[in-house]
């Protein structure tokens, strides 16, 4: 078992029996479920919308090179600059070079999972550059020194009391401060940062090939401020975020907002077309798009699993997953948690260390049912498991155990060889620690079902 898998097991055991954690997640996901139920009726035919979105993403990913080059050409024509980064290290190096060129000491940053993926905040801190999160949820987890808990709602694991306590300790606000008061305090603290920051860094929800634009969806307006006031804007984006046409946004925006938060439309939807032009009063003087590969090409090469690149990061599969709701986002120890993280992380970070995530599922299929772009997540989990076996990424003990299981399934007499008393004894000996700590282990009957059936149907035959 890999070190990562071992840590995953210990973390999940701890979280699964944390009653406070379960209560907070149940409450927050319950509110999400109510909102989504109200938002979905805006679609006259939701299934048709999902099928159309699936086909658009299928077409895009199957022609990914062409659409990326089309985006690059159109974006450069508008005055922007495109940087291709194959690895985390390349992305970090290129971003640092831009910031050093502009003598950046402090920057503002809106919510971006791609930036989390390349560990940008930690990297910049090591080079004495302050990266200030401006999304409220991201700001809260940054103050705590934590990673985002959820793709869409980074602080889902915290109650309003937890946040009030944090603000009281950091900024002296009252312990019983209301959510509104805490939000105003955060606004007060962050407002001056926008006007003094040299650079703003964002992600992007979509790259639009035919116009050479990026689209950012948010609810707080912080991304607009982060891209408008600073003189440099850097967008860090995964190569799979491309869509063919600006016309496709009329489908993807509502799907993203409704499945992401239950809203019919997110509050702020921005389309950015490069740096400001002559005569324009706001916007950055320079704009860069850093296109991140970081293992996505490995996933693209897998015919059965490349559909995972269709993901629009709505987070719906996390909210639907019974495993995620029990073990929490931090247990995964990856940028992308939940079902979608379980299918892409083994390809982004290596099957050797992260194949265990593809086994962290009940295979109930609820994730596939809610996916707005119809990714067969539960099937991709099985494909990953298949590949892990084909690559012989499993401990020797597991191989031996499955060998004996197969032999016993092929030969009924082996199952009946030992009495129920001996079977119960071996189960207690072998699985007392792994299975028996939290549950009563089964006691086997003296006779197997086959033996009982033979005795019933042919009582004279011994």
Describe the structure.
Among the domains are: 43-294, Rossmann fold (3-Layer(aba) Sandwich); 404-457, no CATH class. It contains 23 helices and ten strands. It has helices at 3-16, 19-39, 46-62, 64-77, 88-101, 113-117, 120-126, 136-144, 160-171, 179-196, 222-228, 249-261, 296-300, 316-320, 322-327, 338-349, 351-354, 366-370, 377-390, 396-410, 412-416, 420-431, 449-457, and strands spanning 81-85, 106-109, 130-133, 199-202, 206-208, 213-218, 232-238, 242-243, 268-272, 286-292. A six-stranded parallel beta sheet has the order 1-10-7-4-2-3, sandwiched between helices. Helix 2 packs antiparallel against helix 12 and helix 16 (338-349) packs parallel to helix 19. It starts with a helix and ends in a 5-residue tail after the last helix.
SSE layout:
Blueprint: H1 3-16, H2 19-39, H3 46-62, H4 64-77, E1 81-85, H5 88-101, E2 106-109, H6 113-117, H7 120-126, E3 130-133, H8 136-144, H9 160-171, H10 179-196, E4 199-202, E5 206-208, E6 213-218, H11 222-228, E7 232-238, E8 242-243, H12 249-261, E9 268-272, E10 286-292, H13 296-300, H14 316-320, H15 322-327, H16 338-349, H17 351-354, H18 366-370, H19 377-390, H20 396-410, H21 412-416, H22 420-431, H23 449-457
Parallel strand pairs: 1-10, 2-3, 2-4, 4-7, 5-8, 7-10
Antiparallel strand pairs: 5-6, 6-9
Helix pairs in contact: 2-12, 16-19
């Amino acid at each position: 078992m890999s070190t990562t898998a071992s840590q995953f097991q210990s973390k999940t055991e701890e979280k699964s029996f944390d009653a406070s954690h379960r209560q907070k997640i149940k409450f927050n996901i319950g509110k999400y479920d109510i909102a989504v139920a109200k938002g979905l009726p805006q679609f006259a035919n939701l299934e048709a919308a999902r099928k159309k979105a699936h086909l658009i993403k299928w077409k895009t990913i199957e022609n990914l090179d062409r659409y990326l080059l089309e985006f690059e050409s159109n974006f450069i024509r508008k005055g922007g600059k495109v940087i291709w980064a194959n690895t985390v290290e390349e992305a970090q190096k290129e971003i640092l070079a831009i910031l050093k060129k502009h003598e950046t000491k402090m920057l503002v940053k809106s919510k971006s999972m791609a930036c989390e993926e390349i560990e940008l905040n930690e990297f910049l801190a090591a080079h004495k550059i302050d990266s200030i999160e401006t999304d409220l949820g991201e700001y809260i987890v940054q103050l705590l020194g934590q990673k985002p808990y959820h793709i869409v709602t980074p602080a889902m694991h915290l109650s309003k009391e937890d946040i009030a306590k944090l603000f009281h300790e950091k900024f002296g606000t009252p312990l019983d401060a209301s959510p509104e008061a805490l939000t105003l305090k955060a606004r007060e603290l962050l407002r001056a940062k926008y006007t003094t920051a040299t650079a703003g860094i964002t992600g992007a929800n979509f790259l639009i090939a035919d116009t050479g634009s990026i689209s950012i969806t948010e609810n707080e307006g912080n991304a607009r401020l982060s891209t408008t006031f600073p003189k440099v804007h850097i967008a860090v984006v995964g190569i799979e975020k491309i869509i063919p046409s600006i016309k496709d946004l009329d489908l993807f925006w509502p799907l993203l907002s409704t499945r992401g938060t239950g809203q019919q439309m997110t509050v702020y939807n921005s389309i950015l077309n490069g740096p400001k032009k002559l005569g324009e009063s706001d916007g950055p003087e320079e704009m860069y798009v850093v296109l991140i590969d970081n293992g996505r090409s490995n996933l693209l090469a897998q015919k059965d699993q490349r559909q995972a690149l269709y993901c629009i990061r709505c987070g719906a599969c996390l909210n639907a997953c019974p495993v995620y709701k029990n073990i929490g986002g931090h247990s995964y120890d990856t940028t992308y948690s939940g079902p979608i993280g379980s299918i892409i992380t083994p390809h982004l970070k290596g099957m050797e260390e992260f194949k265990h995530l593809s086994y962290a599922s009940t295979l109930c299929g609820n994730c596939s049912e809610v996916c707005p772009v119809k990714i067969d997540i539960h099937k991709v989990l099985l494909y990953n498991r298949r590949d892990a076996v084909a690559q012989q990424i499993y401990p020797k003990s597991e191989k031996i155990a499955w060998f004996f299981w197969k032999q016993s399934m092929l030969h009924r007499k082996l199952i009946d060889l030992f009495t129920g008393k001996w079977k119960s004894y071996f189960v207690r000996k072998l699985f007392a620690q792994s299975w028996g700590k939290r549950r009563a282990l089964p006691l086997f009957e003296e006779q197997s079902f086959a033996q009982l059936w033979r005795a019933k149907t042919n009582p004279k035959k011994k």
